[in-house]
Amino acid sequence: MEVAPLVDAACERAGCSDFGEDTWQEGLGVLVQSLNHDAALSETGVAAMTDQIVGYLANRLEIERWHGDHPEIADQEIAAPLFGLGLPRTGSTALSFLLAQDPARRSLRVWEASAPCPPPESATEHTDPRIAIAQAGIDFTNEMFPGFLGMIPTAADGPQECLVPMGFDFRSLIFEGMALVPGYAAWLRDCDMEPAYRYHRRVLQLLQWRCPPDRWWLKTPAHMLSINALDAVYPDARFVMTHRDVAKVLPSVSALYSTFIGVLSDRCDPIAIGAHTTSTWRTALERLIDFRDRGNEGRFVDLSFEAVQRDPIGQVTDLYAHLGDDLTDDARQRMEAWWAESSKDRSGPGRYSAAEFGLDPAAIAAQFAFYTDRFDVPVA
What we know:
- The structure is a single chain.
- The chain is mainly alpha-helical.
- 56% of the residues lie in helices and 6% in strands.
- The termini are far apart.
């Protein structure tokens, strides 16, 4: 893979060549180098990563064209967004779907994240042809990666993680879920993440412009790694953090990553996946706790995985009360209906063991005691 042909292909696809600020170039260069050097991509992997990169570049080009043609988009205010974070596999996606049922909230939806241009409009947001296209993409993913179906709730009109718009600046953890790219991962941990969040906001402004409401609910566990940069761009943000025993989280995350990497790489190393997963989320929790300790505790609401699984609507009701929001009867009924329907297909990852990824539950418990003790997370 080479950068120049990827950029040329994106320009041809979008029919323009203005990428806006040049903050995207460094991350793209590091990513491509790491994919070539570290990832051992299969033929399928090269095709998949090429298509993803070109698609992200083309989306950025189209976003910039719309902003250029309509400078008033930049006047859109993204006020006091609510961000979901916490470790992966802690029920954050299910919670995200629950909150997305509230018509008073605005979520980043799968179909508009994958194809944000032309920007959505209220009159057609539920009939936009991109919804069907996105659903076809989901169906293809489920066929391409056996075992993924049921691991995470997903729907074309359901919420998408912030990793996608951050990927338009090529500063995003999304690429690490598809390939082992330690060179890129090391760069990402220490790079300046503010450009990614500025572009994230630029995307939200475009999506909100013709399609309110403007009370955003957003999420990705990766926000913990770059929480200071997020705060710099969204100083009025509030946060919901989900919690679960890390010894259950890390093997599950590793199994999820392995599902993708095993198809896209000729060399899937489960031990390396387990080590990378452990290092990534330990760092994320350390940074998040440091942020909370620096006077930000009052901006957080904490929810346990077990409590949400046991009483989802009750936990959401308590969350709304804590936030000072009104949970309407309509929103509550929509949430109850979604939970009942989605429970039929919720299977979780297939068979796997912690040892498969070089993980030991006792060692995990000791290594992450700083987190589980702090938040009183039950440990098996």
